[in-house]
């Protein structure tokens, strides 16, 4: 799988371009700005964008979704629990980012945890990881041993839960059940900041020190 990250937007979001080397089909995870740079990455690898995926609907992760829709015809996917956040994206962007992004992208289809994302010969597993937002999801690349965690889990930290729809207990449970259940060697590719690994976060993330994974809980 082709994997390239681009840091976009004023809040420095990690946008990921994933491509199938055999078919040249691609998905973009969290297009938080700079649609031109994202399109440039697609052209560099001779990729055709088929799906735009949001780990959640906070404005900094989806600011370029509408522009990419218009430019490529790709379908935009979002978990239905975050549609209310999407509807308020413009107001949140004004308040937190000092920008007016215009109307948000139109959702073409729901992200459904347990239903894989397919592009070419590539597969992403979808896991529900709410807590940072009600509809937060993580995308798991089992073949490449990668976890695209959005704002659920970071290197040395976790997502904030003081925004509308956030809940700390829910987030910690999501991380425990859906992310810490992965093997230690899985790379954590989060929505902001550097990459990490499941093992590193399990051992040293200060927010998870009291969280003991129990697969039967």
Could you explain the architecture of this structure?
The protein has 217 residues and is of the alpha/beta class. The chain is 24% helix and 28% strand. The protein has helices spanning 35-44, 65-72, 83-87, 89-97, 168-179, 198-204; strands at 2-8, 13-19, 25-29, 48-53, 75-78, 109-110, 117-119, 122-128, 137-141, 146-150, 153-154, 157-158, 187-190, 196-197. Strand 8 (122-128) and strand 9 (137-141) form a beta hairpin. The protein is globular and about 45 Å long.
What is the third-level CATH name, the topology? Metallo-beta-lactamase, Chain A
Tally of strands: 14
The class by helix and strand makeup works out as: alpha/beta
Q: Quick one: CATH superfamily? A: Ribonuclease Z/Hydroxyacylglutathione hydrolase-like
Gross CATH architecture: 4-Layer Sandwich
Quote the beta fraction.
25-35%
Question: Helicity level, as a percent range?
Answer: 10-25%
Tally of DSSP helical segments = 6
The poorly predicted ranges are: 211-217
- The SSE order reads EEEHEHEHHEEEEEEEHEEH
Which sequence of strands runs across the widest sheet?
Answer: 1-2-3-4-5-6
Major sheet attributes: 6 strands, mixed
Brief rundown of the structure:
The chain contains six helices and 14 strands.
From the structure above, extract its key features.
single chain, 217 residues, alpha/beta, Metallo-beta-lactamase, Chain A, six-stranded mixed sheet, 14 strands, 24% helix, globular, disordered C terminus
SSE topology:
Blueprint: E1 2-8, E2 13-19, E3 25-29, H1 35-44, E4 48-53, H2 65-72, E5 75-78, H3 83-87, H4 89-97, E6 109-110, E7 117-119, E8 122-128, E9 137-141, E10 146-150, E11 153-154, E12 157-158, H5 168-179, E13 187-190, E14 196-197, H6 198-204
Parallel strand pairs: 3-4, 4-5, 5-6, 10-13
Antiparallel strand pairs: 1-2, 2-3, 7-8, 8-9, 9-10, 11-12, 13-14
